[in-house]
């Protein structure tokens, strides 16, 4: 058995970087930029007013001063008037500043009488002007390469005048469940059968991570069936198998794919859940053999498949979900397998993030997995820990808006 960090290094080390494609802004959320996004204009494109009021010379705004309104510059309609001593130009939020003015006098600080205003409160030079390019300037990289695009990034790219973005192609990931006992959700479940939940859970996880998952038909516990299912991999960028990874007489994935040309890199890791994890290449396609216990398959998805996808898409900025919390209960010493305990999180009155592990950590139990907020990370041979000690966690459900 190798340790999980070694396993991760071996999985990600020689994964290829995906090619690129150009997508429209409406398709770009969640994708990974393949090149920096360069601003095609400056923002604001000119000095503009931040308020409704009057473009003035600040020196002219002593209380009681009377100014002549020489023109109006609504947003979208710049004025060609120059503000000179004793004059002002009416403008609104977003209006381009006319020449000669160095401040915006907000209308609340004036009284108006026909085409004249009287200043009730002076204004300082530069006040309420958004200077040209204060947000970004033309040609500036506003979004780096390797960034997963959030809704805010999409807004920034739009503001920078970029309707198209060059992103990494989504990795196509085939997911193959194996096992005579596996039926699909909604099927009748004959005695001894179980619903193959893991493929659907992983497909959802991968889709959210920017991959293009395909769920293959379930393969029986027969070498020929498993091989047959993998013959049409074609342009698949990665194959995930589920189940048949352990040491039982019907755990055939490694042997069956071995006959088809699988070159195994490693099999079995010192991790819980996830011990029988396998990694190799089948005719050049990376293959991750996940354990059948659905919680083990999912945790391996989080710990190995997501980093693999990040490597393939060049994603250097995603939050890996690692965090620190405080244990809410004691934990016994750990054995030789790096553990991932399903736990709930809550804040106490002082704002401390408390992690409470579920009492049962069976890797076939779906409801604690679905209701947990985090995995508590317990390294191999970690000594017993007491409530109040800090622990490392991987948090779930953090949205990247
Ligand atoms: N003698 C040993 N037995 C086991 C060991 C071991 O080291 N020695 N390891 C255990 C560990 S850890 C795990 S994890 C499991 C994984 O074994 P397999 O990958 O061979 O998985 P299966 O036996 O095919 O299935 C295990 C369990 O999960 C159910 N299953 C399978 N596929 C799915 C699916 N797609 N969705 C939901 N549930 C699935 C299956 O019916 C079994 O109940 O091995 C231990 N045994
Ligand atoms: O990987 Mo297994 O889930 O520890 O039972």
From TrEMBL:
<keyword id="KW-0479">Metal-binding</keyword>
<comment type="similarity">
    <text>Belongs to the MoeA family.</text>
</comment>
<dbReference type="Pfam" id="PF00994">
    <property type="entry name" value="MoCF_biosynth"/>
</dbReference>
<feature type="domain" description="MoaB/Mog">
    <location>
        <begin position="174"/>
        <end position="311"/>
    </location>
</feature>
<dbReference type="InterPro" id="IPR036688">
    <property type="entry name" value="MoeA_C_domain_IV_sf"/>
</dbReference>
<dbReference type="InterPro" id="IPR038987">
    <property type="entry name" value="MoeA-like"/>
</dbReference>
<dbReference type="InterPro" id="IPR036135">
    <property type="entry name" value="MoeA_linker/N_sf"/>
</dbReference>
<keyword id="KW-0500">Molybdenum</keyword>
<comment type="function">
    <text>Catalyzes the insertion of molybdate into adenylated molybdopterin with the concomitant release of AMP.</text>
</comment>
<protein>
    <recommendedName>
        <fullName>Molybdopterin molybdenumtransferase</fullName>
        <ecNumber>2.10.1.1</ecNumber>
    </recommendedName>
</protein>
<keyword id="KW-0501">Molybdenum cofactor biosynthesis</keyword>
<dbReference type="InterPro" id="IPR005111">
    <property type="entry name" value="MoeA_C_domain_IV"/>
</dbReference>
<dbReference type="InterPro" id="IPR008284">
    <property type="entry name" value="MoCF_biosynth_CS"/>
</dbReference>
<comment type="pathway">
    <text>Cofactor biosynthesis; molybdopterin biosynthesis.</text>
</comment>
<dbReference type="InterPro" id="IPR005110">
    <property type="entry name" value="MoeA_linker/N"/>
</dbReference>
<dbReference type="Pfam" id="PF03453">
    <property type="entry name" value="MoeA_N"/>
</dbReference>
<keyword id="KW-0808">Transferase</keyword>
<dbReference type="InterPro" id="IPR036425">
    <property type="entry name" value="MoaB/Mog-like_dom_sf"/>
</dbReference>
<dbReference type="Pfam" id="PF03454">
    <property type="entry name" value="MoeA_C"/>
</dbReference>
<dbReference type="InterPro" id="IPR001453">
    <property type="entry name" value="MoaB/Mog_dom"/>
</dbReference>
<keyword id="KW-0460">Magnesium</keyword>
